[in-house]
Amino acid sequence: MPPSNAPLLAAGPEVVAIPGPSVMPARVLNAMHRSMPDIYAGDLTDVIDEVFDALPAIAGTTSRAFVPIGNGHAGWEMALSNTLSRGQLVLVLDCGRFAAIWGEMAEFNGLRVETITAPFGRAIDPAVVEERLAADTGHEIAAVLTVHVDTASSVRNDIPAIRSAIDAAGHPAMFMVDCIASMGCERFEMDAWRVDVTISASQKGLMTPPGLAMVWAGPKALAAHESADLRTRYWDWTYRTEDGPYYLRFCGTPPVSHLFGLREALRMIDEEGLEERYARHVRLADAVRAAVRAWSTEGGLGFTAAVAEQRSHAVTSIRTGSIDADALAHRCRDQFGVTLGVGIGGEPGTSFRIGHMGHVNAPMVLGVLGAIESALADLGAPTAGSGVAAASAAIAAAGHDG
């Protein structure tokens, strides 16, 4: 809690800087705020067509998307159940926390799971993947599962390099990538990088409240679907693509409000342009990283992602060393009205996360960093310099570059 003589400055709009659900644009929320329409004809059918037409480009693919009602975990299960059979072996590449949870789901659903875990704070080494797949001379491994960005560690995997490792091993395994934290924020090219299944969800870079998953299925995945025996009626791709009423795409009543919101979000992404959007995320992430470098001290704040080139442009995980991360988060929330993301995967109170994904701009990022710096000062935490000054300089430099 703040000192008793400290003025409370949290009145006004709450600033939520967690890595999803992210800040929702007013345009999206306004689009969702509507009475329920006729679900069989009229505006809703046009909205659905526009959403499904726009989704392939977001993932850099010509493959269609399937959109189940659910969160990212729903996307994981849809991908597994439509392409694999009970008892098959999958190779999970974990660089934080979320690929491992996907692997837990696979095992629960009757698959055998082998996991390669990267050293803490580092991305998967493609050479290790190549070595393991080359040793699988019987091609027992049916699929390779990983994340583009791990939301817990903020580590970004090199997806093209992992694809090259699979190819170098001459292995036919399907390649499935979770882009839940990165879609719409970081460059991802499903077709160019030869990814067979891509998974995302609505609540992060796609700027729509939680409730929709997206699964893009490439030709290899659709071929595997024909013999998969984990298929169930709700998730089944065949049922969702049969000729008939459009609502088969959702296996029943469509998520009306979410579809109107997602259409507006996709329009906003198109208006900005994907290249410009990627560049904005790089520049804002650079500002956050400049702040962390300025704050960093021996035994104090530092990056969870150890290698600069492997740090996400959508989320930054910060280890706190001797500083109590929970006390810092409480001070930011109670004193300044800023909610930080809790650390995931390490000891409690040893890290926090800043989400800078989707509908964010420079003033929002600088405000969050300012609250953190003020809270650090309140706590008497050791810092090497002003992170806000460093972030401001990074943003100014980016403005001169652009």
TrEMBL record:
Pfam families: Aminotran_5 (PF00266). Its cofactor is pyridoxal 5'-phosphate. Substrate binds at R353. GO terms for biological process: glycine biosynthetic process, by transamination of glyoxylate. The modification N6-(pyridoxal phosphate)lysine is found at K204. One of its GO terms (molecular function) is L-serine-pyruvate transaminase activity. Residues 79-343 form the Aminotransferase class V domain. InterPro entries: Aminotrans_V_dom (IPR000192), PyrdxlP-dep_Trfase (IPR015424), PyrdxlP-dep_Trfase_major (IPR015421), PyrdxlP-dep_Trfase_small (IPR015422), SP_NH2Trfase/AEP_transaminase (IPR024169). Keywords: Pyridoxal phosphate, Pyruvate. It comes from the Bacteria. The keyword Transferase does not apply. Belongs to the class-V pyridoxal-phosphate-dependent aminotransferase family. This is Alanine-glyoxylate transaminase/serine-glyoxylate transaminase/serine-pyruvate transaminase. It comes from Ilumatobacter fluminis. The lineage of its organism: Bacteria, Bacillati, Actinomycetota, Acidimicrobiia, Acidimicrobiales.
